[in-house]
Amino acid sequence: MKLTNKLKNLPDSPGVYLMKNAKHKVIYVGKAKNLRHRVRSYFQRERDDRAYTEYLVRHVADIDFVLTETEKEALILENNLIKQFKPRFNINLRDDKTFISIKLEVNTKFPYPKVVRQIENDGARYFGPYASARAVRETLRYIHDIIPIRKCPDTVFKKRVKPCLYYQIHKCLGPCCDLVDEVTYRGLIDQVELILKGKQEDLLTVLKEQMLEESKALRYEKAAKIRDRIRAIEETVEKQKIHSMTFVDRDVFGYYLAGNEMWIEVMFIRSGNMEDIASYHFPTNHNTIEEVFRSFLNQFYSQTRFIPAEVITPVESADSRLLEEWLAEKKGKKVVVINPKRGDKVRLVEMAQKNAENACRVSQTYEGDLARTLVSLKETLGLRHIPERIECFDISNISGKQAVGSMITFEKGKPNKARYRRFRIKTVGQIDDYAMMREVLTRRYTRAVQEDDLPNLIMVDGGKGQMGVALKIFDELAIGNVDLIALAKGKKENPILGEKAGEQIFAPWMQDPVALSPSSPELLFLDKIRDEAHRFAIAYHRKLRHREYYTSPLDEIPGIGIARKKKLIKCFGSIEGIRNATIEQLAEIGKLPAKYAAEIFHSLHKAETSIAEAANQCE
Prior knowledge:
Layout: H1 3-8, E1 15-20, E2 26-32, H2 35-41, H3 50-57, E3 62-67, H4 71-85, E4 100-104, E5 114-116, E6 125-130, H5 133-146, H6 154-159, H7 165-168, H8 182-196, H9 200-216, H10 220-235, E7 250-258, E8 261-270, E9 273-283, H11 289-302, E10 310-312, H12 320-331, E11 336-338, H13 344-381, E12 389-398, E13 401-411, E14 414-415, E15 421-424, H14 433-451, E16 457-461, H15 464-477, E17 483-489, E18 503-506, H16 521-549, H17 562-572, H18 575-580, H19 583-589, H20 594-604, H21 606-618
Parallel strand pairs: 7-10, 10-11, 12-16, 16-17
Antiparallel strand pairs: 1-2, 1-3, 4-5, 4-6, 7-8, 8-9, 12-13, 13-14, 13-15, 17-18
Helix pairs in contact: 9-10, 14-15, 19-20
């Protein structure tokens, strides 16, 4: 059906419309209370935002639509379709993993604060969000330092048979071994909640009362510990930075527009205190500010995140009442969306606006510095191209075991994690970093040559040896128009003279390595890339090592669960102790049914039985 006929036959009902180009690709997704009025308005000449609509309509060759029962359903479907199709003219908010929260599973026996990225309706209590992992680490470090709750994760907690070092230094009360009752521990968790809510003053009141009670009961050692806790909290009470007039949870939004680029800043205010701030940057795609904010807010809260009581915005949203209804349904409580005109809330918006403007300036300065650094690298090292795309490799292993390789990619000076790759070494079984690097480079660039997917610069961690390996791969695969460098440690550190280890940069076209100043932007940039490749390799190596060393032989025996494994370890001391026990000892000391005792014994001695059978056959 021709586009004109579709426009004539649009229904008068809520729904979602998908605009497509001549190649039948979705280029814009929108929702409407009345599809007929909304879609046809794009083709009317009297629209206020005619410049934008003309730019969009020029690319529209077809329109599909999906009917919904309500406008709220259309709002939800619009967000889902934007995620699915990633249309060119929509604001596409990609922040599924931006925010971190702290979770307290208060419905479990001995909970502890966990770091999570997804908020679920599971009865737990969530605090945050925090835009940076650093803020979470500081908060948890502060909590663990002054409140003696458990530190170990569930996997360790369930298997532990004796308390860890934290118990010995009085930083934990030993709930893993039932050395503290649930009521006492619950009191500690209440104190943790007060800190996470920003109510340190209330916590100080509670602790001072406890200290007085312990002192009156002549338990001076306990009173002294509480006194130390009080002092630690009093030293950090100034953590609260912004106080609003009421203790309300709020998200405050501000924006700054620079050409076709927009920066949006979000201030997270919890219980009257600003907990964190987050920044977003994307092209407006010729949308109006109102349309950008409407789409941004809808997508922002479609993610799984904490929903405050108030959402304060710098512009009116056409979906504000609809957004209120939708958020209230998700939260289970009333939520208001406000565009303030006067008072304290206007000042909060102004603060968010200033932060957005500052984020723009910082971003532009940073982008300029990166561009200058890349140009300077080309000139300093004599590269053929400006290294707009760099691929760096590193190898990680212990005595040749669990050997892995990593490849990380930087594009225009920034990491592109979608292009990170990791390799498990398959052909090298001994300590030979050169052979391992050869395998990784061969696997990567055999495919890259086939797909014409080569970077501007390849960087390896190591000296001339690693560079020589890479050069052989270049010759074998006929790679000729790509620069290659190797980064290696030079002069050793001399702590007495205060000298740091120097870095040397090797390149095939240079007879001697280049030693840049340790504080030069170029070397700091290359160090950053090398360190990221090393981190990525180490993370994969640790994952494989953990899988190998922390898997118990008991895990493979049916019917032996966590409780029985913990009990056996407690009785026999170790896996070796269990292996040395007889079936009768397993049944009697471990208090196991005869069936399971025999199963464990035969399973742990399976290898010995196989060897004995093979020897008998040979005889």
